[in-house]
Design a protein that fits this description.
- This protein is an alpha/beta fold.
- It contains 9 helices and 10 strands.
- β7, α7 and β8 form a beta-alpha-beta unit.
- α2 crosses α6, α6 crosses α7 and α8 crosses α9.
- It is globular.
- The relative contact order is 0.16.
- It binds pyridoxal-5'-phosphate.
- Pyridoxal-5'-phosphate (PLP) binds next to α3 and α7.
C-alpha cells in the first residue's frame, strides 16, 4: 500500500445530502427470527420508519410532490391538501415544508396523538373529521375542500394519484430486489391506499413473475390496524389493481398486536400495528414453505402508537 493511498480520506460511510428529500428511501432490510418459522425459510423486515418522516408514506409524499411539480400542477403559492390516516400527512407536511409549500391535511379525529402533533410541528393546518367515518369520511371531506378552490389547492389525492404506486415501483421494489440479490420469493405488505402493494408488485413481477405478492387486510371493517383498509367494506382506491396481489390474507387486530410483541422479543424491533399484521401474515406464508425468502414491509415504528396504550407485551 503506497503512502499516498493511505493518506486519502476514507470514503464517506454516511450520506451527504443536498436536501432532506434525499434521505427518503434506501431503508434497511433486517433478518428476523420470529418463532415458528421453518428452518429453511428466511423472513426479512423492510424497516420503513428509517425514513425521515418515520414511515413508508414519505416515499409517496415525495413522489406525488415531485410529479406535481414536473407536470406543472404544483408550484409556488399553492397549498398541498390531502386526507390521510396520519402517515401520508406527516410525509406531506415534511416534504411540503422542505420545499416551501403550505400544507392542509384532513384526518379522522381518531389518528394517534403522535401523528397529530408531528403534523402540527411541521406547520401543517389540520382539519379533523368524525372518528366513526374513518379514512373514508376524511376522503369525502378533502374532495369537497379541494373542489372549493382549485386555484389554491394542489390535491395530492393519494387514493387516485398514479405517483403513489410509482413511488414503490421506482424505489421500494428495486431496493428489495437489490437487498435480497434477487432471491426474494414472497413479498408481504398491508393494503391501505394500496400504493405499496401495487407499485412494489409491478416491479418485482417484472423482474421475476414467480415472486408471490401477499396483500394483508384487517379481518373486519372496525379494526385497530391503523393505515390498513378492509377493502370489502371501504371506498376502493382507484389506484388498486387486484392483479398485483397473488394472495390476500386477513389478520385480526389482536394477532397484529401480538406479533408486534413477538418481534420485539425476538429481534428488538419496535414496529407499528400494521407492521405487526404484515409479520403475522409473513409467518403464516413461511409456515407453508420449506425454502423461501419472505420480505415483509414494516410501514412504521411502534413509537407512533405509544399514546394508544395498545401493546400486547
Ligand atoms: C401504518 C401504515 N401501514 C400501512 C399502510 C398502507 O400502505 P399503502 O397506503 O401504500 O397501501 C399505511 C398507509 O397509510 C400506513 O400508514
Amino acid at each position: 500500500m503506497s503512502a499516498a493511498w493511505a493518506l486519502r480520506p476514507a470514503p464517506p460511510t454516511a450520506p451527504v445530502l443536498r436536501s432532506i428529500d434525499e434521505a427518503i428511501g434506501n431503508t434497511p432490510l433486517v433478518r428476523l427470527h420470529l418463532p415458528g418459522v421453518p428452518e429453511g425459510v428466511e423472513v426479512w423486515g423492510k424497516c420503513e420508519w428509517f425514513n425521515p418522516g418515520g414511515s413508508v408514506k414519505d416515499r409517496t409524499a415525495l413522489s406525488i410532490v415531485r410529479e406535481g411539480e414536473r407536470a406543472g400542477t404544483l408550484g409556488p403559492g399553492k397549498t398541498i391538501v390531502d386526507s390521510s390516516s396520519g402517515n401520508t400527512a406527516v410525509g406531506l407536511a415534511l416534504v411540503g415544508r422542505a420545499r416551501g409549500y403550505a400544507v392542509e391535511l384532513v384526518m379522522p379525529e381518531s389518528v394517534t396523538e403522535e401523528r397529530k402533533r408531528l403534523c402540527e410541528a411541521y406547520g401543517a393546518h389540520i382539519v379533523y373529521t368524525d372518528a366513526f367515518s374513518g379514512s373514508d369520511g376524511a376522503l369525502l371531506r378533502v374532495r369537497e375542500l379541494a373542489a372549493s378552490d382549485p386555484a389554491k389547492y394542489f390535491y395530492a389525492d393519494q387514493y387516485r394519484n398514479p405517483a403513489n404506486p410509482l413511488a414503490h415501483y421506482r424505489t421500494t421494489g428495486p431496493e428489495i430486489w437489490e437487498q435480497t440479490q434477487g432471491r426474494i420469493t414472497h413479498f408481504v405488505a398491508g393494503l391501505g391506499t394500496t400504493g405499496t402493494i401495487v407499485g412494489t408488485s409491478r416491479f418485482l413481477h417484472e423482474r421475476n413473475p414467480r415472486v408471490q405478492v401477499v396483500a394483508v387486510e384487517p379481518d373486519e371493517p372496525l379494526h385497530g390496524l391503523e393505515g390498513l383498509k378492509h377493502l370489502a367494506s371501504a371506498v376502493v382506491p382507484e389506484i388498486w389493481d387486484e392483479k398485483t396481489a397473488d394472495r390476500r390474507l386477513s389478520v385480526s387486530t389482536e394477532d397484529g398486536l401480538l406479533t408486534c410483541a413477538e418481534v420485539l422479543a425476538s429481534d428488538g424491533l419496535l414496529v407499528g400495528h400494521s407492521a405487526g399484521a404484515a409479520l403475522f401474515a409473513a409467518r403464516q406464508v413461511a409456515q407453508g414453505l420449506t425454502r423461501g425468502v419472505v420480505v415483509a414491509l414494516l410501514s412504521d415504528g411502534g413509537d407512533r402508537y405509544l399514546s394508544t396504550g395498545a401493546s400486547a407485551q
